[in-house]
Every structure is written in structure tokens, then in C-alpha cells.
Amino acid sequence: MKTLKLRIKDKHCKALNQLASEVNFVWNYVNDLCFKHLKRKGEFLSAYDIAKYTKGTSKECGLHSQTIQAITEELVTRRKQFRKAKLRWRVSNKRSARRSLGWIPFKKVAVKYADGYVQYGKHQFKLWDSYGLSKYSVKTGLFAEDSRGHWYVCLVVDSVKVEQTNAKTSIGIDLGLKDLATCSNGVKLKAPKIYRQYEQKLGIAQRARNKKRVKAIHAKIKNIRQNMLHQFSRKLVNEHAAIFVGNVNAEALAQTKLAKSVLDASWTTFRSMLKYKCENAGVWYEEVNEAYTTQTCSCCGSRCSSPKGRAGLGIREWQCHECGSSWDRDINSALNILALGYERLAGGIPVF
After folding, report:
1. φ, ψ for residue 245, nearest 5 deg
2. How does residue 342 score in pLDDT terms, banded at 50, 70 and 90?
3. Which of 13, 93, 104, 181 suits a disulfide with 143, CB 3.0-4.6 Å?
């Protein structure tokens, strides 16, 4: 299965905002009901228990009964996940700093769809259909609003079968900040530092308290970054039969002084794109432990002469004293990641 995200035309925003306000009302009612029941009885209400208290709500609020059910299930799930007796209120007021972005969940029976539109209840929402909805089978979905007030419909569908790749090569990828991705075949994707390019304009808009402009700049940064990552990941999947990537800890590095550069690089997003595209195309994907891949010579395995620690970060090229091989630091790491990937593949081959 995969999720299709389609932009709904802006003329339907008013109707969607009204439906989202009703969703927030139901969420807040159920949230308060569960908390009061907990204080009185000392136990939590399940999604099944809540159903008798929301009977008839769909007719009063103009929401489908499956939407009411999806709201209660989501609330119970998040309450367990965050281990809280009461979750945050969903705020509909646009002037509030804590306003919740619009969200309208639904299940398969709640919508009708075809090329160019999605119908929810009495509302028919036209959209830009770049996928051709008629050839998919929808399982579930939701309407979602972004920070700029644009609405999208996200549909979980059965993925259409695609042709398997005919490529026979394998590749290792080392992730970094100077070069976002360095491949074992010598190909490098330069880190464009998109956030840094727009940082000054963003600062001017923030100081002027121009919220609309701030949101527009953030959206532009996100779109440029995702377009670049989509193109590069698609190229890798089309050209290779196996892809191995280092498991660099982006979350930990985001807590250091390198936070802006790490978040701008979007390693986690890039790996997620590679993973689902590989699964869809029948390409082997694996994340391997990249410990010492920079310090180990990919030719002889020696670590004697390689750059080490923070002092060695500025050394981008070095020569192995054991075998005499000269290495680009990142390409050497990518070759070691590829070798580690081959070891995993070899370990999974059964002996007959």
C-alpha cells in the first residue's frame, strides 16, 4: 500500500474549514468525556465505550459516522501512545496562536472518488489529480490542511504493480554535510544548503512579523529540498539492484551545534524515500552500521594512517601507509558501507 497526496482546489477551503471545526468539536467533547470518566471511575473509556456517547453526532455535525469513529480511535491511540490522561484541545480559531491545522479523517465507505474529484457526504471537492484515482482502490484516508491554509486529501491505496528493475549493480552511500550523499561509484550530490540560501529573507520576514511571508518561505525551502531528494533517490533506484546506506544518527546530531546543517540535509527524509521506492521497485535496501567506515582503508582494512577524531575532520583526502592507496574520505566510507552490505547479503544466502 502507499499514500497519495492530492491538492484540493482553494474554492473548497471554506467548506473544509467548517467540517474541520466540527471535527475539533467532537475531539474536544470526547477528550473531556474520557477525562471526567477517569476522575469519577478511575478507568479509561475505550473506543467501543465512547461510541454510545457519540450516537447521532454525525447527523448533528454534518460528519460521516465513520469519521466520528476514526476521531475516537485516534484519540484513544494517542492517549495510550503519550500516556496522558487528557490530550491537548484542538483549537479552530484562526486568530489563536495555538490553532490546530485542519484534519478530517475518514474510511473507505465515507468517500466516493473518480478522476478529478473526491466526494465526502454532500460535498464534492475538485482536485488536481496527477495520479488518476479511478485506477486505485482506496482503503482509508483524511483531509489535511497545511500551514498556508491549503487543503490536501491523503488516500491510502493499493499500490499499482510496477515493472521490476533490470539493473544488476549495487551501491553504497555515505551521508554527509558538505556532500549530502557520496556514492561508492564516485558520484556525489552536493549539499545545496537551501535553508542557508533563504535564511536572510526568512529573518527579515520574521522581524517584520509577516507570518504569511514566513510560511511561504518555509514552504519554498521544503519544496525545493524534496524535489531534489525525489530526483536523486529515483535515479539511484532506477540504476541499481541493491542500495546500502550508512545509519548516521541524525536525531543525535540535531542536538549539537550542527543542528541547522543536519536538519537542512534531511538525511532521514532521503532514507525514507529510498526505502519505499526500493520496496516498490523490487530493489534491495539496507541500512548498515557506518562505525569506523571513514577510518578504515577499503582496500586493505588498515586504520593506522587514516584521519581520526575532530582534528581529522578537515582532512578530506589521505593515503594509506599499509597499501599505498589514496582515498577521498567520503568515497572510501561509501566503499566500506557497500562491503558491509555485501556481508549482510552473503549471510542471508542459504547453504544447500
Report:
1. -125, 145
2. confident
3. 104
Residue 232 in this model has a pLDDT that exceeds 90:
yes
Instruction: Measure the CA–CA gap between 137 and 160, rounded to whole angstroms.
Output: 9
- Count the Cβ atoms, other than its own, within 10 Å of residue 197: 13
Q: What confidence tier does 23 reach under pLDDT thresholds 50, 70, 90? A: very high
Beta strand pairing status for 242-246 and 284-288? parallel
Measured in residues, the chain has a length of: 352
Q: How does the average pLDDT of the chain come out, rounded?
A: 88
The per-residue pLDDT for range 303-335, each reduced to its tens digit, is 766 667 665 666 777 778 777 777 788 888 899
The whole-angstrom separation of Cα 13 and Cα 145 is 9
C-alpha cell at 78: 494517542
Residues 6+ apart with CB under 8 A from 299: 320, 323, 325
Sheet order of strands, 103-107 included = 2-7, 151-157, 138-145, 103-107
For the residues 79-84, what does the mean pLDDT come to? 93
Instruction: Find the largest Cα–Cα distance for the chain.
Output: 78
Domains delineated in the chain = 2-151 (no CATH), 161-192+221-352 (3.30.420)
Is residue 349 pLDDT above 60, yes or no? no
CA 197 distance to own-chain centroid? 23
